[in-house]
Design a protein that fits this description.
Elements lengths: L3 E6 L7 H14 L4 E6 L1 H5 L6 H18 L6 E5 L4 H11 L4 H5 L2 H9 L8 H4 L1 H11 L2 E5 L5 H18 L8 E3 L29 H9 L20 H9 L3 H13 L4 H24 L3 H30 L7
Parallel strand pairs: 1-2, 1-4, 2-3, 4-5
Bound molecules: tryptophan (TRP).
Tryptophan binds next to strand 1 and helix 8.
Length: 332
Amino acid sequence: MKKTLLTGDRPTGPLHLGHYVGSLKNRVLLQAQYDTYIMIADMQALTDHADKPDWIKKNVLEVVKDYLSVGIDPTCAKIFIQSQIPQLAELTMIFLNLVSVARLERNPTTKAEIQQKGYQDSVPAGFLCYPVSQAADIALFQASCVPVGDDQMPIIEVTNEIIRRFNHYYGSGCFIECEAITSSTSRLMGIDGQAKASKSLGNAIFLSDSAEVVKNKVMQMYTDPTHLKVSDPGNVEGNMVFHYLDAFHANKDEVADLKAHYQRGGLGDVTIKKILIETLNTLLSPIRERRAALTDQICLEILQSGTEKAQHTALQMMKNVHALMGISYFKS
Ligand code: TRP
């Protein structure tokens, strides 16, 4: 029996290169080896966008297109929509009793997001608790492998704490602990030099960006502000062009040579930016081509089929949970 892999994304906009290196690439590599579930987390998206369900819905198909265009194969990966699996909400209710509010408030990922979103004293309860719902996503499908960016590590930790407590209270017949799979570039920085590429910060290159847009974004990239003349020695640390070359260029020796040349002086920003543009377009052009061949109808059919399979698993698992906890009353 194959082990299970589960991961997902909030449909709050198109996926970007940070998602690609942090998680999508791993999913494509691992999808055939595992029983793979990929979830579009529309309920989680509501935790910080409660006023915009139509906008979330619109983004769902875009995310499916991103998945398929990078090579997620719907014949082995079940792509499904979180809101269509009510058992996830039920399991979240059970899990909420297995973690303290103080523990959730200490989570560095949600803490940073709360600050970034300016929630201060008005954090939606659902937002504070989304790691609990994420624990339910992972547990209900018995996932042992969760490919995610490193910002998700604290959530995986809480997930395992909840699973351990569940198993301690009710028995270990249902849920297994999971492991996060991160990549060597598990956090891609923004083109502006900020710590994280993100759509909300407006500093990301999207998988669906045209060649022209990619060129413009690379041309605006933050390099070394003290590197004024081509002949000046330049810094490669904190220089986004080199950060992206490290993440995406296939030839590490060539990147090492470019770095040495830049540090000595004599290598201009425009030259390295042109190399990066070419590197990124080599990666993105087959992705763009696959995307162009996808219709909304194809994506919907794939989603429906994946969701039906996920519903089947979820229903079965929840029956086991009821039996384990002894919360069944009537003969069916
Ligand atoms: N929190 C994840 C993100 O923002 C999305 C997500 C929801 C997820 N449920 C999950 C990831 C379960 C892995 C496993 O990207």
